[in-house]
Amino acid sequence: MFALRSSVSRAAARSHTARRFNSTEASAPKGNNTPMLVALGAAVAAGAYYYTSTDKGKAQAKEAQAKVEGKIDEGKSQVEAAKSKAEGKIDEVKGKAQGQYDSLKGKAEGKADEAKGQYESAKSQAEGKAKELKGDVKEEAEKLKK
Q1: Cβ partners under 8 Å of residue 69, min gap 6
Q2: What pLDDT does 59 receive?
């Protein structure tokens, strides 16, 4: 009996939690806005045509075009100025890098020459010791022969 009640309550719980309830009803389908948008576009086109066909409209259109071209030219000059400034910075950085490279190259060559000199000095000292030891060995050999 207990098993029956628990299975019924589980089934009820599952079915209750599995359902979804909408808090609002679905809205009614809206109408198509295409005719309104076409009419709005036609009104804008008619206004633009009327505006540009009058002398005042033509003058204002030319003035606006001149302003736009002036802004374009101003923008181009700003781009060129920024470009030349960037190129100057690049050249400056290249110069600094080349100077550091040359400085380090000179230091490295100096250290290489110094190491070469130390090597030659050590080599000549070793050769001198070798000759000295060779002479000592010959003397010892001659003493042993006698």
Answers
A1: none
A2: 86
Q: How many residues does the chain have?
A: 146
120 contacts 128 by C-beta, under 8 angstroms: no
Specify the pLDDT at position 11: 52
Rounded to a whole number of angstroms, the distance between the first and last alpha carbons of the chain is 128
What the block records as the tokens of 5 is: 């009640």
The reported pTM is 0.41
Buried b (16+ CB within 10 A) or exposed e, 124-142: eeeeeeeeeeeeeeeeeee
What's the average model confidence in pLDDT over 99-122? 94
What gap in Å lies between CA 110 and CA 135, rounded to an integer? Answer: 37
Predicted confidence at residue 3, as pLDDT, reads: 52
Q: What is the distance of C-alpha 72 from the center of its chain? A: 28
